[in-house]
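Q: Structure tokens for this one, please.
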Amino acid sequence: MSDPHDHDSQHSHEHDHAYLHAHGIPHTHTHVHENQKAVINRLSRAIGHLEKVKRMVEEGYDCSEVLIQLAAVRSALDNTGKVILKDHMRHCMVDAVAAGDEAAIDDLCQAIDKLI
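A: Here is the predicted structure, written as tokens:
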């Protein structure tokens, strides 16, 4: 498994993403995801862990054990969000600030509010 901080093992891919800004205006966004593979791996592990937590509930595990495992899933998701946010800041936002794209900056602020 690759370390998301090891930039030598990262693959850069360009992707076009069409989405709606918070104010409903369509936007096509092209950028490089330095840590895309690491993010996908982290999400896959978190999904697997969450499925295990679900089985624990179904099998009647102690509530304290379930809560501890649920906290681990939340932590994994929070850390994945940090990786995505850092990539976004390093690439997308640098371009947005250089272009004076206030909408992109507003969108990031709203996304951070929802993440935190």
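A few notes: The chain is about 65% helix and 10% strand. Residues 1-27 have pLDDT under 50 and may be disordered.
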